[in-house]
Specification:
This protein has 181 residues and is α/β, with parallel strands linked by helices. The radius of gyration is 22 Å and the shape is elongated.
Length: 181
């Protein structure tokens, strides 16, 4: 917004395209008739403000969480940390050559029944804290000198997410544990 004007920022083409895609998907799922699709598409394509664009999506379910995400240790020796409340994608790729990795999934929002974590670790260490009711599968993980540290909970409560960890660990070590609470 320019100084002294009350004009709202323009709608990005990506936002408009996303709205049109969501409307077409909802129509394809039978959420509204063809006439309503025409009206909603017209409103989305001619919207001048974000409020008008959002209005064309009224009554639609929220889009699903992202399916994939990549986290890379940008600086040599840098750390990768995720903790607190955050959305865990269906597939998460984490790469760190020298740094330390800490992923705390204990308070994270896990919307998928199975989460794949692809871990690529050089010489640093990695710690992953999973929810108490999670089932952990380390079958796809290749390790160098040090075996991963993990002690499964007994018995695992049904209904928890499956956390599949794959990838490669060079000279570092992976530790996986369940949350205490």
């Amino acid at each position: 917004m320019a100084a002294g004007t009350d004009e709202p920022p323009p709608i990005a083409a990506e936002d408009r395209d996303t709205a049109v895609r969501r409307l077409r998907e909802a129509y394809g799922q039978g959420q509204f008739p063809h006439e309503e699709l025409d009206d909603r598409l017209h409103r989305a394509l001619t919207a001048a403000t974000h409020d008008e664009l959002t209005g064309s999506l009224t009554g639609l379910p929220e889009p699903p969480p992202p399916a994939t995400a990549t986290i890379t240790g940008a600086a040599p020796g840098g750390r990768i940390h995720r903790r607190g409340v955050w959305e865990v994608p269906r597939t998460l790729t984490v790469a760190s050559a020298l740094g330390r990795v800490r992923l705390d999934l204990s308070r994270a929002v896990i919307a998928h029944p199975v989460v794949d974590i692809e871990l690529y670790l050089g010489t640093g260490g990695a710690a992953i804290i999973v929810p108490r009711d999670a089932v952990v599968d380390l079958g796809g993980l290749r390790t160098g000198r040090k075996a991963p540290r993990y002690r499964p909970r007994r018995p695992a409560r049904p209904g928890g997410p499956v956390i599949r960890i794959s990838g490669g660990v060079g000279l570092g070590r992976l530790s996986v544990r369940h949350a205490r609470w």
